[in-house]
Amino acid sequence: MAPTVEIAIPTASLSNTSPPYTIYHITLRLPLRSFTVSKRYSDFSAFHSALVKQTNAEPPVPLPSKSWFSNTNKNPRFREERRIGLEEYLRAINEVPDGRWRTSPAWRAFLNLPTAAASTSNGTSNTSARLHAAITDPGSTNAPITDPTLWLDYYRDMKSHLHDSRLQLSRRDQETTPQKQHESSAQAKSSLVRAGSMITTLEEGLKNLSGRGAKSGDSSASSSLGDGEIRRRKDLLINARKEKDGLEDLLHAMAAKSKLDHAVASIQDKEALLRSGNDSSSEGRRTPVKSGRVLGKETERTRELDNNGVLQLQRQMMQSQDQNVDELMKIIIRQRELGTAIHEELEVQNELLKLADEDTDRFVTLSLLSFLVVFY
Asked: How far are the Cα atoms of 62, 67, 79 from residue 72, in angstroms, in the given order?
């Protein structure tokens, strides 16, 4: 039987501490999700000791031994060899037919695996496979939830759908274009529908776990829960359903507000265009007629208008632009007048400076002549 968990150690890196140490990044792929666990060689060594102590047997592949003459921090080649050896060590335990090591608590704790992911086919049901079937076909009567661990995994997946829908609604509130808002709303609605189906499946599964399924002759019920745990899980489902209903109400409120905003904007634009059309002497009263034009990228102002409305809007915009040009022309003329006045003032100042220079020259000449007359 193929393992339900795929294990690999694709990379190894050095820590940012002083002194640094080597970190091995273990990638695990389950039927529904993937995650990464980072471990040091000392963690592998402690795990190996606990595994042997719990199973009273050595794993099928020995753990790479510790080297006293080489350091993985300074020797990339040795670090790569150890990474490959540790990957082979974990894969051998994961793929060996004998599942005694995979069912040990040390294995699950070292890889952060849920109980469902560690189950095998040796007399027990494959919980991961059943979880995958439940996720892909929620509400299926052929695969009811009868395992407590499967129920919790399924509940976590349902909560992730609620979380996704909340994120999409927040994103929709931040979007500025109708297309992006529609995409976010559609994704949020899809997640909410999925979550609603899963809540119904969880409620049916809780009935099985409470013992009613076993009493009715359901041989697939693997275990039952106590009254306290049943009440706790019922409270979880009640809160989840309230959260789902609240998100649905929020989605409907956002959609209604968007429609109302578009309707108000359309009415205001049409009224403004009709008033402009009535005031124009060249344009008579015209009743807007819907048309099926396709003009490429529409704007908020033109989306709800027909061809006549777009024409009126264009004329208004052109008239506004003409007014802006007239105002700009007045400003330019005023600036020109100021420039002319400044030029005239500069000419007067230049003439005054010229006269001052001439007077200075005459004064210097007269002073020189007077000095010569007195001297001789």
From this structure: 19, 9, 5
